[in-house]
Amino acid sequence: MLSPTRSSVEAILKTVITTVSTILQESTSATAERQEESNDADDSEPSKKKFKDDTEVETSATKTLYPSQPRLPKKRKVCVSFGYCGAGYFGLQRNAKDKIHRTIEDELVEAFVKVDAIPQAHADDMSKMCFQRAARTDKGVSAVANLVSLKLSPLENLTQLVNEQLPKQVRMFGVKRVAASFNSKNSCDARTYIYILPTYAFCPIEEITSESYRITPEVLQLVKDVSSEYLGSHNFHNFTSGKKFTDPSARRHIFSINVAEPFMKENVQFTIITIKGQSFMLHQIRKMTSLIIAIVRGIASRDTIQQAYNADKIDIPKAPPLGLVLEKLHYDRYDKKFGNDGQHESLMWEEAQTDITTFKEEIIVPHIVKKEITDKSYPFS
Asked: From 47, 158, 292, 348, which residue has the greatest number of CB atoms within 10 Å?
């Protein structure tokens, strides 16, 4: 192979240098043209500003086509006081999946949805709004003033708006903001129930029972004496269902129990037993009332109540649910800690007492009296 001459190498290098120089010139020229075009564009309408303006116009159009929804008020932890006549309902507690058995909470929760206090999603899953009831009542049982705690939007005139959506036998009495730690069930110190019944339920077994029966002072005193045996802390495992004597939760405390002087309604004599306790188990008050009646009438011996506190199992029947009414909830410890802190209110509901009393006297008591006279939940024997 022959080596290239010096003149040949110089010719090749010259050609390469010429070619590279040409390419660089063309590149510089193209860059200058693009810069010139860019400068022309800047003179007419800056590209950056144009992009910004386009964006602003697009945002404005979007706002016009899709107006923003009004922001709902921030949800607050509140408690709601309400009363109800239990007739026609399957108790208080709501089961969102059960569309057949109507409950009091169905009415209340649906009313909250209708006035936009809670979204439908919270009605379908009540845990999302931290819903808690203070006291559960069974089928046919009424309440003068029960209470639930939950998170909802604090709308103006909420009580009035909700009542417009509720049937007459269910009333909301008020709403108050509560501490974040508040739980309507666990924060409740005590509950007061009343049981309304005709005095002929106490008619001695050897006498003929009829609506014309009038309780004597001696029998009325016996009712009071027997009732007093429930006072204090006892094991009430025989006064509910499914509780063993060894179950610690069967031990309950009764603060007070009173028997009212008899009164006349529709030519029938009635009385009221008022019981205040820390808490009550399922059917406990109805079984307590039933045993009082059995002892006063002479069906059961006087020492049956004391025997019922022992381990032996005793079958105690339930009194009818008609006369049982949740009268009041007590939040003494909560009121002492938060009632006057400047942010929360006492849960005494004194401002709603007139409405509460009116509801009791015009809706609940007349229903119980009328139903008892018509259906005779305490049949003659």
From this structure: 292
| Counts for the chain of helices (H) and strands (E), in that order | 11, 10
Is pLDDT above 70 for 47? no
Give every CB contact of residue 238 below 8 A, 6+ residues apart in sequence: 287, 308, 309, 313, 314, 316
Token output for 39: 């400068």
The total of other beta-carbon atoms located within 10 Å of residue 126's CB is 18
Q: Which residues of 74-105 are buried (b: 16+ CB within 10 A; e: fewer)?
A: ebebbbbbbbbbbbebbbbebeeeeeeeebbb
CA distances from 331 to 130, 239, 354 (A): 19, 26, 20
Provide the 8-state DSSP code for 67.
P
The answer to whether residue 138 is catalytic is yes
Residue in the block written with tokens 């009635």: 270
pLDDT tens digits along 107-137: 999 999 999 999 999 999 999 999 999 999 9
Handedness of CA 122, 128, 130, 133 (dihedral sign): positive
Which residues contribute to the annotated binding site for substrate? Answer: 193
Catalytic residue among 43, 53, 138, 312: 138
